From TrEMBL:
Residues that, per the record, bind [4Fe-4S] cluster: 23, 53, 56, 62
Function noted in UniProt: Acts as a transcriptional regulator. Probably redox-responsive. The apo- but not holo-form probably binds DNA.
Native source organism of the sequence: Streptomyces subrutilus
Swiss-Prot/TrEMBL cofactor(s): [4Fe-4S] cluster
Record domain 4Fe-4S Wbl-type: where: 22-86
Official protein name in the record: Transcriptional regulator WhiB
Gene of this entry: whiB
Amino acid sequence: MTDVAHLPAAPHDSWQWQTRAACRNLGSGRFFHPAGERGEDREERDAAAKKVCAGCPVRTACLEHALRTREPFGVWGGLTEEERRALPKRRARALAGRS
């Protein structure tokens, strides 16, 4: 018999968490920096994004998605791309559900 335990979930199930995300209707500008944004402007935008993430009911699922897909841009699950890359590999795998 074929082991189907590791097959991906149905697309609807895989993305259902997004319907409950606190950022759902806020637009992407708060979560993805424009080209060339640096310094205080970027820090302020990141802080505003993280404030939304802090109260989000699906923050963990969002972060797991970003880690699993190696999302290269934006704030996901309360972490910037730099913060996600800085996570130790073991911790990132555990957060992404691949421990």
